[in-house]
Specification:
By secondary structure, the protein is an alpha+beta fold. It folds into two domains: 100 residues, PGBD-like superfamily/PGBD (Muramoyl-pentapeptide Carboxypeptidase, domain 1); 117 residues, endopeptidase fold (from Nostoc punctiforme), CATH 3.90.1720.10. The protein contains six helices and six strands. It has a six-stranded antiparallel beta sheet with strand order 1-6-2-3-4-5. Helix 4 packs across helix 5. It is elongated, with a radius of gyration of 27 Å. The two termini are 41 Å apart.
Length: 235
């Protein structure tokens, strides 16, 4: 593609956005800016603006302004000191936008904090490489399998766990292999009975210590009889 052609395509894309953005925001072409230019959103209307209202209020995103959406808008307006019309005017729209921006900022902050915890879990687990298996030990210099996971989660995430693999599994939220991320827990089972706990390392591996004569290290998961569990809040 030539540079001139690429520039023309880029310019066309910008023009398209400039034309469609007022329609997305409910602005009437040719009218004054502000409240007079905003198309109020109300009962039985549908479209992306309704979906945004529902998303901002944490409602089911049907895309249609139903009675439940109307009541939720009225409640929101009451909390914000706005007229309880049950329809979305410009003032309500702006308040919803501010709420959505705050929610997104909070989610980003929470996601970063959660990512930091997972990073610390992996770091602490790796720092114990080479420590020997000792039955009943929970660190800092020796571990059994559940003592290792107990120690890592306490030190890295401030999470208190029982010193028993089965009990640790019950404390977690069951997830699929596809959902598992490095730092989640892996529980090995036989006939449904948990016999080993480990920390997921990614790429089908775990950090763990398994039996007398072994040390903390990284090994491939050697069986399909495993459960994955999450102890930290979901993103």
């Amino acid at each position: 593609m030539s540079r001139s052609h690429a520039r023309r395509r880029s310019l066309a894309s910008i023009i398209t956005v400039l034309i469609t953005l007022p329609l997305m925001l409910g602005l009437v072409p040719g009218s004054a800016s502000g409240a007079e230019a905003f198309a109020t959103i109300g009962l039985h209307q549908s479209g992306p603006r309704v979906t945004f209202v529902q998303r901002a209020l944490n409602l089911p995103r049907t895309g249609t302004y139903n009675a439940h959406t109307r009541q939720s808008v009225k409640s929101f307006q009451h909390r914000r000191g706005l007229a309880r019309s049950g329809t979305v005017d410009l003032l309500t729209w702006n308040a919803l936008q501010r709420r959505w921006d705050r929610v997104q900022a909070l989610r980003l902050k929470q996601r970063k904090a959660l990512d930091a915890k997972y990073h610390r879990i992996i770091k602490v687990a790796r720092n114990q490489f080479g420590d020997p298996y000792v039955f009943g030990a929970a660190g800092p210099g020796a571990f059994d399998c559940s003592g290792f996971t107990l120690y890592v989660y306490a030190k890295a995430a401030g999470k208190s766990l029982p010193h028993l693999a089965t009990s640790q599994y019950r404390k977690g939220h069951r997830i699929s292999k596809r959902q598992a991320r490095p730092g989640d827990l892996v529980f090995f089972h036989s006939g449904g009975d948990i016999y080993h706990a480990a920390i997921y390392a990614g790429h089908g591996d775990v950090y763990h210590v398994s039996r007398p004569g072994t040390v903390v290290g990284r090994d491939p998961i050697w069986t399909s009889s495993v459960y994955y569990a999450r102890l930290l809040p979901r993103r």
